[in-house]
Amino acid sequence: MDQRSFREAAEISASADPILRYVSGVVSPEWMLPKALWLKRHEPAVFRKAQRLVECTDWFMFRLTGEWNLSLNNVTVKWDYARPDGGWSQPLLKWAGLEDLPEKWPSQVVPLGKGDLRLSACAAGELGLKAGIPVAQGGIDAYLGMLGMGAVEAGDLAMIMGSSTCHLAMSPKELFGSGMLGCYPDAVVEGLFTLEGGQTATGSIVNWYRQHFAGNEAAEAERSGRNVYELLDEKAAAVPPGCEGLICLDYWQGNRCPLKDPKARGMFWGLTLSHGPGHVYRSIYEATAFGTRHILEDVARHGLMVKRLFAGGGGAKSRLWLQIHADVLGQPIHLPRENEACALGSALVAAAHCGHYADLEEAARQMVQISGIIEPRPENTRRYDYYYAKYLATYPALQSLMHDMAEHK
Predict the structure, then answer these.
(1) DSSP-derived secondary structure letter, 167
(2) Radius of gyration of the chain (CA)
(3) Which of 59, 180, 352, 394 is 20 to 30 Å from 45 at the Cα level?
(4) Domain boundary among 80, 114, 138
(5) CB under 8 Å to 63, separation ≥6 — which residues?
(6) Is the pLDDT of residue 198 over 80?
(7) pTM summary value
């Protein structure tokens, strides 16, 4: 979620390098190149000293196998790597002053679920496993979650609800020009494009509210032995759709999609003395659902029509939050039996790697089961249309104030 390299991201985006078409022309400050450039400028001694500049995915693979390599899934999505274009853009690295960065990267790039690495004796001893077990190349949690939900057909979209929310869909053709984070070739299934949208903060806003404003509910949960989120949901469920005029903007960490504005900020407006904790909490749920609708409407304008919507991750444990999403979107939401879709996706990739299934698609079809469908309530969908319009109007009305404050801070 770290947005501190937003200036470096803007500079890299200004290069207009052809490879940036895979990220809709805008580099996220959350990804490798802007953060590496920030590090080189602000902590140059750390940059020089670092033998490797990698992510936790790569470090885990190294600890498991004793060898360095990179995940094609991860570098395609986060490192501006495009296999159809030959990998990284050397002109872009030169533009950014990062010609020396590849020296700090492992040279081998391995597709998701592939590779011939084995569990090292050292790691086996630490983990209590046998040395020599095959280790499949991993990837980004949300992408594994898409597989773990079974969203592998054209028109399927997986919504992984964690501290942030990721929206992922498979496409046989490229889709450029939308407000999506990107259109990534070979990122999951070789020969296909993975489209990704996302919200920087969703579950993390819910957790923020719980930590700072739910003391009464936390105390009651401790006395009764119940989950604090169940109590918060009960209060929110007692509030009507639209929260009686309270609008929340879910930009606590900027907007990832479709605005791609790291300097956007969150807010509540419409507060009156009649509003209580249930209103505020429900307005957070509604804002995140509005954000998803904004993303899906944007990609629909560019040719992606969602036929089936899947939801998983920690946020999917809240039935109320899911129902609000279904109502706001006016679409049914399919729920996999296994709520921890990212963990199932990891197991699915390993199963395919070991030859239990022919490929990732077959593994997903065999291993994923749908436990239920949440249907939208048409009367609520109609009511939400009004409040969604107010949500959309809020950002352009306050954009300049948000930017001024972000720069001042």
Answers:
(1) E
(2) 22
(3) 59
(4) 138
(5) 123
(6) yes
(7) 0.83
